[in-house]
Each structure stands twice: as C-alpha cells, then as structure tokens.
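Help needed: design a sequence for this.
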C-alpha cells in the first residue's frame, strides 16, 4: 500500500458526494468558498476516468434549473450518493435556503436525471446523514432534520426495486444523535463511526458539541444496534471524515474535531473480524490535513479528492476556523496493491529519471499520472455509453 500520485486541477469541491461505476468516478454537487449556495442552480456532475486520471464536466451540469422542477436536482451539499446497477441515487442535502427529501436518479448509460416516484414513509429532509446499500435497499441514518430542527436518530430504508420507503423499528441501545459521520456496509452489518453531536452540561440550556470515537454496528438481519468492545489504535472522534471498504475492512481518513481545534490526515483500518483498529502509515506523498473530502475505491485504488483545510501557518485555537479555510482541487491516489509498472513510474518521477527511451504508451501513462488536470466538457453523444 502506498500513495502513488498527487494531481492538481480537478473540481474544487467541499461536502460533495461521489461513487464509482465501472472505471469511472462520478462526483455530485458540493460547493467551494465564494459560491452563492442560496441560488437554485442545477447540481454539477464531474466524471473521473480512473484509467487516464482525467476529469470531465458532464453536460447535465449546465442544464437550467427551475425552482419547482422535479426532475433536476438543485446544487447542494451534505447529500448522499449510492450505486444500484448502472444508476446512481442522490438523496437529501441542502443549500443555504432549504434541505431536500426528493429522490433523484442519475442514469450512467443514458446520462440523464429522473426523479422516481416513491411511496411509503418518506424520511424528513436532512443533510449530513449517511446511506448504504444492502440487499436491494438503501439504508439512511442520522443527519440534521430541517423540519424538526434536530439531529435524526432513526433508520429508514428505501426498497430500490419497488421505490418504497420504510421506517425501521430498531432494537438494542442506540448510538447518540449525530451528523457528518460515516457508515459502511460489510457483509450484513453497517458500521458507524464518528460524527458531530450535542449533549447537555449541568442544565438543559447548556449545550455542548460532542465528537464520539465509539464504533457501532447495525445488524441488518435483526435490525439491532451493537456497541462492540474494540481494541488497537482507536482514532479520536471527528466529523466530515471519509470511510471506505477494502478486503472486508473499513478505512477512515481525515476529518475535523472542533473541541481539539484540529484537522486530520491520518489513516486507520478497522478489521471487523477481530474488532481491532490499526493506524496505517502508507509511504509516498500523503494528503494534507483536511475534511469534507471524498474517497472512492476503484479496484485496488482509492481516489481522494477535494475537501478543505486551514490556511498554512494558521493557528486554529481561539480563532474562527471557518474564515480561514482553503478549498482543494487536488486528487491523491492510494494504491493497495501497486504493480511493478506503477512502482517504476513512481521511481521515475521521484528520482527525475530520463524517460526519453521509454515506449510511447509508458510516456503517456507518466504524463497522465503526474501532469496537472484541465477539466474538459463531456461532449453529448447520440449513442448510449
């Protein structure tokens, strides 16, 4: 396992949602500092070709959005994206005017948006929740509900074959309420870590922000919450971090803890078979401290892009961190099983070796792997694909 490259020039996005379909990564929405997030404009879609490491902007990003349009999603942050077949489902999120409870579907074959008709017990609009797919169903947990003006602790699932929502009656001691946590699905369990919550100190009027580092899992066969005893290098509590699964293990990266006033760039592995955490020190150029980034697994590689960090030489303690952040347009790639070819290209770059004698295809791979991106526009096609 090692970090193999750091590329600049991708989409500058924070609190976006991203998934992979085949060899492509699709990134939806988010925002960057200075944008007007109160406007109802269409949510942008950026597509990464993980073979060439090149970003393109999808034409649907530039379609006009009208406030009462029920087909196109408006630009948002704090939403979720999941893959089911060749379709991507977007749910929740908000702009600075309102949150959303409409389900949207992006078809990766026909390259278009739809808003499927849904039935059942539709969850309240929210942002900062999580979503996982298991057995044809999308499960959501947590987040902040606009209508109730409170954190959500309920679990819902959407049957993606029938487009029917159901409230889940859970058993066992429940996790504390939170948003901007992470969940991943491994076998028949959803593993939950981190997030931002609140608790009362001394009286019901003194509310403090909390960051839990307790790991929970939700048994999808019994709808029961569990808080297992874990060991190892347990990460500190955080929010706006990333989580992904590789080889039936959960990994988390980065995040932010406001109580400690600290951003993170650490990488941890959790092995559910032995309930043990392990801090990972991967060689190569690691990402800087950041939060609100996306991490997407494609094959043996994790593509990390976007997010936000404190400005260089900025002391976070006692200052308003939100006013001193820098948004990223870079991408870093973590390769769990780098091939000899990849390791050779990394060495050529690291030691400045002469590549003049290399075959043309290797020169092109080197250029793609280490040259800055320039986002292009996907040209519409009459054919599907």
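Sure. Designed sequence:
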């Amino acid at each position: 396992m090692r970090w193999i490259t750091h590329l600049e020039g991708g989409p500058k996005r924070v609190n976006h949602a991203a998934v992979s379909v085949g060899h492509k990564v699709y990134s939806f929405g988010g925002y960057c500092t200075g944008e007007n997030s109160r406007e109802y404009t269409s949510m942008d879609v950026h597509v990464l070709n993980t073979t060439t490491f090149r970003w393109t902007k999808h034409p649907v990003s530039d379609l006009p959005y009208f406030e009462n349009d029920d087909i196109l999603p408006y630009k948002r942050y704090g939403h979720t994206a999941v893959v089911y077949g060749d379709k991507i489902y977007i749910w929740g999120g908000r702009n600075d005017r309102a949150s959303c409870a409409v389900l949207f579907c992006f078809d990766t074959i026909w390259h278009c948006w739809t808003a499927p008709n849904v039935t059942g017990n539709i969850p309240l609009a929210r942002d900062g929740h999580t979503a996982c797919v298991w057995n044809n169903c999308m499960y959501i947990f947590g987040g902040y509900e606009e209508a109730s003006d409170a954190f959500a602790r309920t679990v819902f699932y959407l049957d993606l074959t029938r487009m029917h929502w159901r409230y889940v009656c859970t058993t066992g001691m429940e996790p504390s309420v939170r948003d901007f946590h992470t969940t991943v699905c491994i076998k028949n369990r959803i593993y939950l870590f981190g997030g931002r919550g609140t608790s009362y100190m001394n009286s019901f009027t003194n509310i403090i922000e909390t960051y839990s580092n307790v790991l929970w899992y939700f048994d999808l066969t019994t709808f029961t919450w569990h808080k297992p005893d874990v060991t190892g290098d347990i990460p500190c509590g955080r929010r706006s971090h990333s989580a992904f699964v590789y080889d039936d293990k959960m990994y988390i990266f980065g995040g932010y803890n406001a109580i400690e006033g600290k951003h993170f760039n650490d990488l941890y592995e959790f092995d559910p078979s032995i309930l043990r955490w392990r801090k990972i020190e991967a060689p190569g150029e690691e990402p800087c401290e950041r939060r609100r980034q996306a991490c997407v697994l494609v094959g043996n590689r994790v593509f990390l892009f976007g997010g936000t960090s404190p400005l260089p030489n900025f002391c976070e303690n006692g200052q308003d961190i939100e006013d001193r952040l820098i948004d990223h347009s870079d991408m870093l790639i973590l390769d769990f099983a780098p091939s000899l070819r990849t390791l050779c290209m990394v060495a050529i770059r690291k030691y400045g070796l002469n590549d003049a004698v290399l075959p043309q295809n290797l020169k092109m791979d080197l250029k793609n792997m280490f040259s800055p991106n320039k986002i292009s526009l996907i040209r519409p096609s009459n054919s599907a694909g």
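Residues 380-385 have pLDDT under 50 and may be disordered.
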